[in-house]
Amino acid sequence: MEIGEYLRGLRGRLMPGRLGLPDTGQRRVTGLRREEVAVLAGISVDYYRRLEQGRERNPSVQIIESLARGLNLTTEERRHLFRLAGYSPPVQASADTVRPALAGQLGRWHDQAAFVLTGTLGVLAPNVVAQALFAPLTHADNLARAVFVDPAGRTFYRDWEHVAENTVAVLRHNSTLVPAAEFDPFIEELAEADDHFRTLWARRHVRGKTHAAKRIRHPEVGDLTLEYHALDVPESPGHQVIVYDAEPGTSAAEAFALLRLRAHGLRAAAAASVPGADVDSLGAARPRR
């Protein structure tokens, strides 16, 4: 599909009111007029007409960004527009929050440890089981810090060296997904904190986070071997949903079940300690209204 065809399709289904334009009078066409798109994007009507008609085939990155911003495109629409123009979508600032609906869904997974992982391996919206799993770590809010800064990390991860190598490779992979202004200071922090991180970073290995086994030594339930799967969050580049679970019928499954029971028991106890409280999807007690 050419960029002109895509823009015509977008223009035809976008309503003026959605973009803050007056929606009055009789319209000969459905959606926006070319003149309105040009105004929203801050470009000339003649240039936009040539772009839509296919007579302008090499728009600049600035023009594409102006169109994406002016038309208030979704993340996926924006990416597609950039790709049609022959560009890789610029990296957007990563959010440090999770949609409430997604956080609620993670909280309803009572048998797995689930959370959202950012491009710098920050842990967002951990459910009750994930909180219990990472409780022994001082830096449970960031898995890279847990590996290289947290003293507990070297005993928590039974294959620490392997985990360290993978962690750095994943960060290398994510370096194109996180804005440099956010990513570079984080890497500098780890490099200053740990010599081994500097050595591994210099190797430039790249590996995306997909699925693997993690061997963990948990002080409450003993040794665990858990499989994790990573699922991308389309509307948040660099973010992934991570789900940990144990293979059924194994000793790890028994230990993981014990951890879950303790986690949910603590959640219930927390709720009971607050008179008239419910327990929300992330395990925090909150007063009833």
From TrEMBL:
SUPFAM superfamilies in alphabetical order: lambda repressor-like DNA-binding domains
Database matches in InterPro entries: Cro/C1-type_HTH, Lambda_DNA-bd_dom_sf, MLTR_LBD
PANTHER family named among the record's database cross-references: BLL4672 PROTEIN (PTHR35010:SF2), BLL4672 PROTEIN-RELATED (PTHR35010)
Name of the protein in question: Helix-turn-helix protein
Superkingdom of this protein's organism: Bacteria
Gene3D superfamilies, alphabetized: 3.30.450.180, lambda repressor-like DNA-binding domains
GO molecular function term, any single one: DNA binding
The species this protein was found in: Actinoalloteichus hoggarensis
